[in-house]
Amino acid sequence: MSILKKRTSADGFLPEKEFIALFALMMSLTALSMDSMLPAFPNIATSLGIEDYQKTQWIVSAMIFGMMFGEIIFGPLSDAIGRKKCILIGIGIYIGGSVIALSASSIEVFLLGRVIQGFGVSGPKIASRALVRDLYKGAAMARIMSFVMMVFILVPLLAPSIGQLVMQVADWRWIFALLVFQASVAGGWLLLRQPETLTKENRIPLNRKRLIADVRIILSRRDVMAFTVLLGCIFGGLMLHISTAQSIFQDVYQTGDRFPLYFALLAIGSSVINFSNGKIVQRVGMLRCVIAALSVLLAASFVLLLSTLYFDGVPPFVLFMGLGMIMFSCFGMVFGNVNAMAMEPLGKMAGLGASVISSLSSFLAIVFSTLVGLFYHFTVTPLASGFVIFSIMALVMLRYGNRYRQRSGENVDDV
């Protein structure tokens, strides 16, 4: 049961609905920073002199690269100074990176801004998860994370349309101005309304020896590492999709200005499943939810791969969209549950644990998506192949992590 259900705003704690809304707004900064850029890829390439299309994938990769380093820093920092301060520091850095990208006149400066954006957004991303872990546990934590992740997944429904709408009335740089506005609202809301959840007596001072020892403890948990690799596989598939989506829809399928609409349709199933996951997980457990989601993802991606081989790399658009909606409906059930499964045993090391899990999974996602992305040449085959490979790897990691916990006398749904 959640602590927040027992405490109300009269006790100095946010009501649950406002809590979910605030943290969904902060955590959606990550998705909005990536997805709102997609319709602007051609404009950014022209403005900054990018000639090779594959280099536009750096727009996404640079931000994830910054996140990878930020996640290493903000985890232990949130354990040392508190969740709230850590989130506010991250938002400040994120705003600075957004301003740099907004005013960039070269690809080098633009990518620097994106790296700083990624570094900064790691503050709210990591510390928010640790804050949720302070107040929730078990299935209740998975439930809250599901509702937060529902909004996180819902962002792709609107983000490309928002980016395209901005470009219809202004330059692509104003997309970054909009991101600055959202970050400012989230930071102000947090500052005024959310109390600190990590008490001073539970804070862990920054100490190199202790930090190294705690990292070793986390890395020694084979179940946590297995679930981290699982997250890296699925996140890698999502990154591969995001970095190639604009070209697949507009260059391969010639959707033109309808690209944001079709991109959003792929996210509908994920949003619906994520909303339902909050209720389903308390009935059947996290493990069964993840097994079902990964199995469906593998089956759908395998059918998509077979269709690309039959249709010379470009299956009919209706088939591509149908299978895509099924595949993406699995994301919502995987991310929230596996994050909860990985974080649950880490206790007071929640901040550092979130840091290690996120940085490693982000690193793996960059490696996986970049390697598969090198084979992209205006067909759907690399995307389908990547999802088949990532799904198989994820299922293997899930089985390994669960068997390790069983041998340790633990159960994924009981810890």
UniProtKB/TrEMBL annotation:
It comes from the Bacteria. Keywords: Cell inner membrane, Cell membrane, Membrane, Transmembrane, Transmembrane helix, Transport. CDD domains: MFS_MdfA_MDR_like (cd17320). InterPro entries: Efflux_drug-R_Bcr/CmlA, MFS, MFS_dom, MFS_trans_sf. Residues 19-409 form the Major facilitator superfamily (MFS) profile domain. Its main location: membrane. The chain crosses the membrane at residues 20-38, 58-74, 86-105, 111-132, 144-166, 172-192, 224-249, 261-277, 289-311, 317-338, 350-368, 374-398. PROSITE patterns: MFS. It is found in: Cell inner membrane; Cell membrane. It is a multi-pass membrane protein. It holds the Pfam family MFS_1. NCBIfam families: efflux_Bcr_CflA. Belongs to the major facilitator superfamily. Bcr/CmlA family. This is Bcr/CflA family efflux transporter. The lineage of its organism: Bacteria, Pseudomonadati, Pseudomonadota, Gammaproteobacteria, Oceanospirillales.
